[in-house]
């Protein structure tokens, strides 16, 4: 299994993440996105209403690697931030069944190569996958 159970539980409870891509000219783009986890495949699926027309989709089509972050504050007193960063390769998928309700048939599939998580089930953990 690529994701730990604590990571899967955390991701299942979060509605949004942020996806960073890089254009061929080197310009970084970072946007809030909705997502789902394909635990069996060990991938993250990013969807949207018009994903196929987005800059992030074009960046991925042109070979961008990606960084996907989901984080929140578990408490502010005491301060406790928690989250997960998933770095990896991405694939622009067209004309497949939507990965989640109310999104287009175009989506982005992220295959993790490195996962960093913090305060999900212990201290910071970083691993290559």
So what's the oligomer here? single chain
| CATH homologous superfamily descriptor | Electron Transport, Fmn-binding Protein, Chain A
Mean pLDDT: 93
How many distinct beta strands?
A: 7
End-to-end distance: 10 Å
**pLDDT < 50 stretches:** none
The figure for the number of domains is 1
How would a crystallographer describe the biggest sheet? 6 strands, antiparallel, barrel
Strand content: over 45%
Shape: globular
Number of helices: 2
CATH class: Mainly Beta
Helix and strand sequence: HEEEHEEEE
What is the third-level CATH name, the topology?
Answer: Pnp Oxidase, Chain A
Rg measurement, Å: 15 Å
- Percent of residues in helices: 10-25%
Strand order, largest beta sheet: 1-2-3-6-5-4
Tell me what the CATH architecture is.
Answer: Roll
Name the features.
129 residues; mainly beta; Pnp Oxidase, Chain A; globular; 2 helices; single chain; 7 strands
Give the helices and strands, then pairings.
Blueprint: H1 5-12, E1 17-22, E2 28-38, E3 43-47, H2 55-61, E4 66-76, E5 79-93, E6 107-118, E7 125-128
Antiparallel strand pairs: 1-2, 1-4, 2-3, 3-6, 4-5, 5-6, 6-7
Would you kindly provide a written description of the structure presented here, covering whatever features stand out?
This protein is mostly beta strands and 129 residues long. The protein has a single domain, classed as Electron Transport, Fmn-binding Protein, Chain A (Pnp Oxidase, Chain A), CATH 2.30.110. The protein has two helices and seven strands; from the N terminus they run αβββαββββ. It has helices spanning 5-12, 55-61, and strands spanning 17-22, 28-38, 43-47, 66-76, 79-93, 107-118, 125-128. Strands 1-2-3-6-5-4 form a six-stranded antiparallel β-barrel. The chain starts with a helix and ends with a strand. The model has no long low-confidence stretch (mean pLDDT 93).
């Amino acid at each position: 299994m690529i994701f730990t159970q604590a990571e899967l539980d955390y991701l299942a409870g979060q509605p949004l993440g942020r996806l960073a891509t890089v254009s061929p000219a080197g310009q970084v783009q970072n946007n809030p996105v909705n997502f789902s986890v394909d635990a069996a495949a060990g991938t993250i699926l990013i969807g949207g209403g018009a994903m196929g027309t987005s800059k992030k989709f074009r960046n991925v089509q042109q070979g961008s690697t990606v960084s996907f972050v989901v984080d929140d504050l578990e408490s502010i007193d005491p301060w406790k931030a928690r989250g997960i960063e998933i770095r990896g390769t991405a694939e622009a998928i067209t004309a497949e069944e939507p990965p989640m309700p109310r999104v287009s048939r175009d989506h982005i599939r992220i295959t993790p190569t490195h996962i960093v998580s913090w305060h999900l089930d212990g201290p910071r953990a970083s691993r290559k996958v």
